[in-house]
């Protein structure tokens, strides 16, 4: 089969897929849906209520099931939000098992939920699942429900593929791409930038420490995902050249990143990919970061520098060196390694292979 395909793209139900994005997963899903549609494919996006209505949106039924008083009182009753999400994906998979073959050619599960994997065998069409995180017990359990899991897996980095290898020995690597037309090369400027969700595992407080030690102003941008963490660790760092500028849409964020002399990326966990790294490179902005997770795969000596994990003094020492790197080299790395074009080509070829 060749030409236009009918693709069911399953998103995470936790946050709407719309700007300003709650995180990298939502940004990636939105970008992928638009890229596939621009290539002539029909993409039905199954996403949380409130997602971008300009997409062919099918809202996931994230509604609380009508549980009896006895069921709700049971000691095994999970958190209500967990139950809502479980119920939404259960209804979706049952619907796709009943009539998905008439509506779609392939299902691409871009969520973090276990049910699209556990119930894939019930669907009359091929299923692709992208592994965005390190292994979790729920996903590993879902994969092992059958001796031969019928799902085709991709991983967002070689690091992530390696982490999953004991359970998924042959995940294909398809890195999350950025639209290099929207994330255009910027002129640089006098400040550093840190972008992402302000949560402990992303370490924005460490970026503030490193910037201050290096003597550079820093602009922090992104949604506050953990209010307590922000209050206790980030707010005390603000002032004296460190500013929090809020949660910006893609256009304003790209302008801010393109106007920075370097981007700081400070994960406190093994980052499975690091979309903010790709976004910075597309803007021609070199990156200083911690040597964790997939960051060493994306960065080369021409476009970035890496310090030992958690070492803000070492990171600060690398910043003056990083800001002198060639912005054109950073942009070239994004275009050749982690662009939307590369990602869409790889997914398109995979879909064609599975439906032929």
Can you characterise this structure?
With 356 residues, the protein is of the alpha/beta class. It is built from 14 helices and 13 strands. The strands form two sheets. A seven-stranded parallel β-sheet has the order 3-2-1-4-5-6-7. It has a six-stranded parallel β-sheet with strand order 10-9-8-11-12-13, sandwiched between helices. The termini are close together.
Task: Walk across the major sheet and give the strand order.
Answer: 3-2-1-4-5-6-7
CATH architecture of the largest domain: 3-Layer(aba) Sandwich
| Total number of beta strands | 13
Percent of residues in beta strands: 5-15%
| Helix-strand sequence | EHEEHHEHEHEHEEHEHEHEHEHEHHH
What do we call the CATH topology of the largest domain? Rossmann fold
Total helical elements: 14
The CATH superfamily of the largest domain turns out to be Glycogen Phosphorylase B
Can you give the helix content as a percent range? 25-40%
Instruction: Describe the sheet with the most strands.
Output: 7 strands, parallel
Shape from CA axes?
globular
Radius of gyration: 21 Å
Distance between the termini: 5 Å
- Contiguous uncertain segments of 5+ residues: none
Give the count of structural domains: 2
Structural class: alpha/beta
Domain Glycosyl transferase family: 189-323
Domain Glycosyltransferase subfamily 4-like N-terminal: 23-180
Keywords: Glycosyltransferase, Transferase
InterPro entries: Glyco_trans_1, Glyco_trans_4-like_N
């Amino acid at each position: 089969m060749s030409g236009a395909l009918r693709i069911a793209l399953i998103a995470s139900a936790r946050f709407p897929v719309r700007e300003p994005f709650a995180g990298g997963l939502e940004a990636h899903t939105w970008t992928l849906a638009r890229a596939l549609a621009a290539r002539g494919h029909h993409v039905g996006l199954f996403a949380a209520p409130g997602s971008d209505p300009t997409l062919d949106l099918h809202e996931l039924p994230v509604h609380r099931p009508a549980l009896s008083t006895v069921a709700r009182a049971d000691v095994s009753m999970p958190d209500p939000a967990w139950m809502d999400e479980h119920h939404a994906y259960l209804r979706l998979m049952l619907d796709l098992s009943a009539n998905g073959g008439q509506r779609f050619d392939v299902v691409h599960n871009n969520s973090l939920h276990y049910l699209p994997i556990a119930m894939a065998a019930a669907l009359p069409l091929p299923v692709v699942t992208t592994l965005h995180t390190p292994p979790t017990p729920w996903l590993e359990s879902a994969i092992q429900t059958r001796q031969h899991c019928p799902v085709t897996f991709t991983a967002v980095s070689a690091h992530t593929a390696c982490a999953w290898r004991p359970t998924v020995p042959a995940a294909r690597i398809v890195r999350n791409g950025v639209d290099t037309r929207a994330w255009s090369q910027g002129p640089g400027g006098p400040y550093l930038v840190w972008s992402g969700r302000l949560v402990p595992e992303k370490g924005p407080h460490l970026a503030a420490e490193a910037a201050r030690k290096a003597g550079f102003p820093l602009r922090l941008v992104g949604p506050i995902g953990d209010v307590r963490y922000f209050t206790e660790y980030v707010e005390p760092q603000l002032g004296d050249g460190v500013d929090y500028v809020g949660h910006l849409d893609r256009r304003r964020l790209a302008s801010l990143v393109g106007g920075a002399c370097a981007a700081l990326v400070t994960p406190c966990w093994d980052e499975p990919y690091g979309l903010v790294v790709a976004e910075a490179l597309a803007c021609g902005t070199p990156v200083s970061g911690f040597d964790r997770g997939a960051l060493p795969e994306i960065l080369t000596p021409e476009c970035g520098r890496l310090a030992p994990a958690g070492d803000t003094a070492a990171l600060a020492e690398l910043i003056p060196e990083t800001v002198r790197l060639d912005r054109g080299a950073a942009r070239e790395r994004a275009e050749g390694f982690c662009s939307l074009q590369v990602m869409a080509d790889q997914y398109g070829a995979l879909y064609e292979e599975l439906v032929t």
